[in-house]
Design a protein that fits this description.
single chain, alpha/beta, Rossmann fold, seven-stranded mixed beta sheet, 7 strands, globular
Length: 243
């Protein structure tokens, strides 16, 4: 990821519709699958600028880990962090009740998805919950994937295959379903090659009213996602368990 992107994310992660909406979706799923009234030890593996640290802290004691010094510079303003590589986590076996890994495996710097997942399994306690989210569809790339150094975007089947044999998948679904048609229309010129992908983020900079409307749609989705599996979307979210 470009260094400038960490600052952009940090500036917008509490107000931008996508970050607020994904926080609502993740929170809803964790409320359903985590044990009630228990103080949990939680790892945000690949925490980036720290977007998830605050809402994860509602469920217990959280620490974020990231390989980027630039990311940690921002994330430490939101919670406890430590430098480390997701493929070689600096923690003892069975250290955490919950691990979140949000939009990490798709990055080019994760050389081996299987090794990263094995490390997550190693530091997760037996019976622990693993929240995984990745961007959907490798054909759905845009300028955002250039600045994020995207290696691969997943299908639901691919991500389920990555998890199989390591974890018991409790739920896996596409997310950002309602707004997928709008995202498709926006990205189609770059998808089909009519418009060149730029080494510059086009993710931010929308009118506050539109930001509110888009959040309303994804917030509605957060109320439905615990009981429904959506057939498509811009992201894939999975809840898995270490047996």
């Amino acid at each position: 990821m470009l260094k400038s992107q960490y600052g952009n994310i940090f500036e917008h992660q509490d107000s931008y519709w996508w970050y607020k909406g994904m926080a609502a979706i993740n929170t809803a799923l964790l409320k359903k699958y985590l044990p009630k009234n228990k103080k949990l030890k939680i790892l945000d593996a690949g925490c980036g600028s720290g977007a998830a640290l605050l809402y994860l802290s509602k469920f217990g004691e959280v620490i974020g880990v990231d390989v980027s010094d630039e990311a940690l510079k921002f994330a430490q303003k939101r919670g406890k962090v430590k430098k480390g590589n997701i493929s070689s986590l600096p923690f003892k076996d069975a250290s955490f009740d919950v691990i979140a890994c949000l939009d990490v495996l798709y990055h080019a710097w994760v050389k081996d998805d299987k090794q990263a997942l094995l490390e997550i399994k190693r530091v997760l306690k037996p019976g622990g919950i693993f929240l995984l989210r990745e961007p959907a569809y490798d054909w759905f790339r845009s300028s955002e994937d250039v600045v994020d150094f995207t290696k691969h975007r997943f299908t639901k089947k691919e991500l389920e295959g990555e998890l199989s044999g390591l974890f018991k998948v409790l739920k896996i679904t596409y997310a950002n379903f309602f707004l997928f048609p709008l995202a498709f229309v926006k990205r189609i010129p770059q998808v089909i090659g009519f418009q060149k992908k730029q080494n510059k983020s086009d993710f931010f900079g929308i009118h506050p009213l539109l930001n509110k409307i888009l959040f309303t749609f994804i917030n509605i989705e957060s109320k439905l996602i615990t009981g429904l599996n959506f057939p498509f979307g811009t992201s894939i979210v999975a809840i898995a368990k270490k047996e």
